[in-house]
Amino acid sequence: MIFLLQNFQRYLRAKLSFFYNKNEHLNPKIENLINTVHKMSEEIFSTNKLNRKETHKIFSKKVYSLIRSKKFLNFIQNSFIQQMFFIHNRFYLFYYLREMQKSKKWKLWQKLIKETSVGNPIRYFLYPDSSGNKIFQIYHLKKYEEFSKINLKKFDEVIEFGGGYGNMAASFSKINSKVKFTIFDTYEVNLLQYYYLKRLNLKVNFNSFKSNSKNINLINSMTILKSKILKIKKNKKKLLIANWSLSETPLNFRKKMFYIFKEFDYQLISFQKDFEKINNKKYFNNIANYNLKKSREVKLIPIKKMQNHFYLFSKK
Question: What whole-number distance in Å separates Cα of residue 274 and Cα of residue 281?
């Protein structure tokens, strides 16, 4: 019943942007890409490869079903995709938007929040040039830049743990076309990201990486990810991004990923206080203390307008 009510509320919020929808239509180029991703999906992982929470098992099956049924056109209009990946038509987002508009760097934020037509994203009804999702994600970057005092274009490498459908990677390609951006995610979500980013005409590597490449790397292998991270030169500025992703994984998996905190001085992490009986506040307090021991500057602060949600910021 709660799930149905949430879906209905999401449907009503989406209808606020009805006039701004830009439905996609199939053409030979898009059809060829869809067929390519469909063929790639035949090599899908075993669902038992990772010890996932029940939430993620359901999620994986639904994403895989979307890919196997080739329902890529207008995929962001899909209720389940919105539930997992998309924030839209929330009044508190206007507060974030206004904060960006008042910033001295508004021209940059304005460029980054400009929405594309790929996937037919729901436009933000109070600012239809963008979407709630774009505003939400770019706001996190703004807050981190204010904390770190480092221009985002100065980062050489960005690793994103859990990348949604690829929006953050696409945003960084506008910030710095030379940045090496890597998304670590599940196989089926990597496929969705591959489709989205290729539609934006970006260069993408799938489950591999080239040390000298400026492409976006999509990785679902922990072995490949660790190999990549350990090969990044020590003098490079590298940023770890994990927005509500690491905080939604089992604790035993987080232990396997802990090495990433050793390697990254710069961290932009957001999380909810609790997730499926996991005390995230306690967990990330421990991460903050670890960062302090590594002589990093750390901030653990509430996210404005979001009760029981927090940022963990770290810098060298």
Answer: 7
Burial class of residue 26, CB neighbours in 10 A (0-12, 13-18, 19+): exposed
57 or 193: whose pLDDT is higher? 193
Provide the residue type at 282 as one letter.
K
As a dihedral over the C-alpha atoms of residue 1, residue 121, residue 156, residue 175, rounded to 10 degrees, the angle is -140
pLDDT, average across residues 228-254: 93
List, in sequence order, every residue forming a beta bridge with 314; answer none if it has no partner: 267, 298
| Residue 14: both structure tokens together | 């989406």
State the average pLDDT over residues 253-273.
96
Burial class (CB in 10 A: 0-12, 13-18, 19+), 184: buried
pLDDT for 42: 86
Q: What are phi and psi of 275, to 5 degrees?
A: -145, 115
The CA–CA distances, whole Å, from 182 to 109, 159, 164 equal 22, 5, 13
CA 205/CA 209 separation, integer angstroms: 6
pLDDT, residue 50, reads 43
The pTM (predicted TM-score) of the whole model is 0.91
Tell me how far apart the alpha carbons of residues 20 and 68 are, in angstroms, rounded to a whole number: 29
**DSSP class of residue 204?**
E
